[in-house]
Amino acid sequence: MNSIERFYATIERRPVDRPACWLGDPTPQAVPALCEHFGVSDIKELKRVCGDDFYAVEVPYHSETCNAIFAAFDWYMNGSNVDTEHRTLTADACFTPCEDVEDVKAVNFPWPDPEKYIDPEECKKLVDEAPKDKTVLGMLWACHFQDVCAAFGMQTCLMNMVAEPEMVHYVDDKIVAFYEKALKIFLDATKGKVHAILIGDDVGSQRGLMISPELISEFVIPGAKRLIDLAHSYGVKVIYHSCGSIVDAIPLLIDAGVDAIHPIQALAAGMDPANLKEKFEGKVSFCGGVDTQDLLPNGTPEMVAAKVKELRTYFPTGLIVSPSHEGLQDDVPPRNIKALFEEANKIY
User: Fold this and answer.
1) In degrees, to the nearest 5, what angle opens at C-alpha 250 toward C-alphas 216 and 332?
2) Cis peptide bond prior to 263, omega within 30° of 0
3) What angle do CA 17, 21, 22 make, to 5 degrees?
4) CA dihedral 233, 229, 148, 165 (to 10 degrees)
5) Under a CB-based contact definition with an 8 Å cutoff, are residues 44 and 52 in contact?
6) Per residue in 266-293, pLDDT tens?
7) What is the torsion angle, in degrees rounded to the nearest 10, for the CA atoms of residue 66, residue 71, residue 74 and residue 75?
8) The pairing of beta strand 237-241 with beta strand 319-323
9) Would you call 87 helix, strand, or coil by DSSP?
10) Can you list the alpha helix ranges (DSSP code H) found in the chain?
11) Residue 171 to residue 152: CA distance in whole angstroms
């Protein structure tokens, strides 16, 4: 199997020669040590050498103040929200004082138009750089729940979900429409060349959901489904990201049409492979599972290999083996990443 065949078989829970694997997107601080350990010069060569089945492409976005689509909204209306290193969901923002939809409209927020800031030719160029046998993964993110929390300030937003839901729906609809248009531009420009997209929102804590399943059903799922349906209309699979314990939200994501759940935060409550297999086998695929909170930073290569073997036992297919956080940190010894891929790449 090549990487594309392996991805489709994994995502559709058909037999595979070995699991599909994804390194994720290591932080800039983590890359030098990884490259040195694997004896390569850059991240692209690293992914080729280690056996990564994916080639991730960030949807390119360049506005007057921002070069990342996940920071496209300046909720403070002063340019500060484009600082991707220090953004926060919790600070007061432009809609914090609003008490109803008319107040929201009166703010005159400058909603960005992705058509102005996404170049179809750049999209095509970035995707065309992918190796022909790799699974192309479009990184849209489209974190509309997190965006709407940032738009009001998280505490205010969560209260408004109960007290003034129309306000939250109004802002959320604008955000989702932005991501829908951005996704359409990207997929039109790269038609037939993108195999999957990654979208999502962090709705889980270490012990459970941050908001109730009922609120997730009302405020998170409808926007996600709009994006999922759009991707599926292009024949593109959808990997949905949420950190934390989201076991109680997975049935909602399955109903919305998600193809795979990422990243299986291994130490979060209810996210162990035995529980996920028992509850969801045959209903959805998964991506992740190799713990980045303790195992990868502090374990030995032998322990990492044992965990990968365990995951393969639970999920002989239907699991993309990957660190349980896509943004691999520099506290993870490269030898443990090598052990992860060596065990995952074995043909039993």
Assistant:
1) 105
2) yes
3) 165
4) 140
5) no
6) 999 999 999 999 999 999 999 999 999 9
7) -170
8) unpaired
9) coil
10) 3-11, 31-38, 43-50, 101-106, 114-117, 120-128, 144-152, 154-163, 165-189, 213-219, 221-233, 250-256, 273-280, 295-298, 301-314, 334-344
11) 9
Q: What does the alpha-carbon distance between residue 155 and residue 196 come to, in Å, rounded to a whole number?
A: 33
Mean pLDDT along residues 172-189: 98
Other Cβ atoms less than 10 A from the Cβ of 100: the count is 12
**C-beta separation of 340 from 304 below 8 A:** yes
Residue reference for tokens 């080639």 = 55
Q: How far apart are CA 92 and CA 127, in angstroms?
A: 38
**Nearest alpha carbon to residue 343 among 315, 297, 317, 307:** 307
Q: What is the pLDDT of residues 24-65, one digit of tens each?
A: 999 999 999 999 999 999 999 999 999 999 999 999 999 988
In whole angstroms, what is the distance from residue 140 CA to residue 307 CA? 30
Contact (CB, 8 A) for 262 and 287? yes
- The DSSP-derived string for 326-343 is SS--TTS-HHHHHHHHHH
Q: Are 198 and 140 a contacting pair, CB within 8 Å?
A: yes
CA–CA distances in Å: residue 296 to residues 303, 305, 334, 340, 341 = 9, 10, 9, 9, 12
- Other CB atoms within a 10 A radius of the CB of residue 129 amount to 11
Q: What are 345's two structure tokens?
A: 């790449």
Q: Which residue type does 294 have?
A: D
